Backbone:
DNA sequence: CACAATACGTCAGCTTTGTTGACATTCCAA
DNA sequence: TTGGAATGTCAACAAAGCTGACGTATTGTG
């Protein structure tokens, strides 16, 4: 936090101008469109939506997760998630198995078909991400991640950090 | 995960790993929630939604813009925009005036009330942005913007660039 | 001038995805 | 055994996107 401090305060606080912040806000808005564009196209063909993508993504990410856990990650109501989950289960993309230790819980897994769709979606999304990363370079990417993390709600960041530790 | 690898390729391409890309994707998802959280809270009280926020933002940004222009910036249909615009005009937040050169066009401006809401919303959003920027520092912010710009669709980036030049 | 194209508004209907509220079931744990 | 937690389901509703069709100025063009 200790910025430039005394002498010339280095690169100064010019980057905190309302103008600069506004540009960041617009960049965030426009970039998010690109971020979702490719998966959206694929999903539209299969008459699914972003909600399905999110469910699939996080089930893939945390196989065996419970409905409740997924709920808090996605930040939606159980009714809303249930509708999406039901179609995914009916269509054979997601398997829901009764918990062993706690039979009230349902553990969620991707089926082969589900995993295939997950791959298709995340390949598309990663392709764009990879192109952006490559164009911007490693230093920019580090900054990108830093700012995004600082932008999250505390509770959300908690989920994010928990995810991060899972695989690496 | 391919950790160490060999000595060459400098900082290497490790930042293009699927793992790294996935983290970036999740960071984007979680951060966007934070990004919209504060304005969402304000909007909910006034029974408006994000669509209203977007319209207000870009009308403020480009006073006198036409409906068609707004349409292409927001990337929605005129029916969708019209619904939002109608309520904003009815509520006296936006003024629509017939074009001078071309009387088919409507030029959109914020009224005093509209400008007040715009300020309230963007203050809230900027506060979070500012905190994130300050925490991450100028170098990170530059990287943040670089990656976001690289992530946009070409057409979208065109809008973004046009905006950038407007005020600075 | 006549006609096509443009800009805008609107009606109707549909979809996705979110919300509340109410209620039943199952089952763990005190 | 009983209370509460986890889940599921029904109903109703809202925001915000979509398509398609139509009407009305207005403008540009052949």
Residues:
């Amino acid at each position: 936090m200790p910025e430039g401090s005394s002498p010339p305060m280095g690169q100064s606080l010019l980057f905190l101008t309302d103008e600069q912040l506004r540009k960041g806000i617009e960049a965030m808005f426009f970039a998010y469109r690109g971020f979702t564009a490719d998966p959206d196209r694929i999903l539209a063909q299969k008459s699914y939506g972003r909600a399905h993508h999110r469910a699939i993504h996080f089930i893939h990410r945390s196989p065996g997760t419970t409905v409740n856990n997924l709920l808090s990650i996605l930040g939606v109501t159980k009714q809303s998630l249930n509708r999406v989950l039901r179609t995914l289960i009916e269509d054979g993309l997601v398997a829901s198995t009764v918990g062993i230790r706690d039979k009230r819980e349902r553990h969620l897994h991707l089926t082969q078909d589900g995993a295939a769709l997950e791959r298709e979606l995340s390949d598309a999304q990663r392709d764009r991400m990879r192109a952006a990363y490559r164009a911007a370079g490693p230093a920019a990417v580090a900054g990108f991640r830093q700012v995004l993390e600082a932008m999250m709600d505390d509770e959300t960041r908690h989920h994010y950090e928990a995810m991060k530790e899972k695989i690496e």
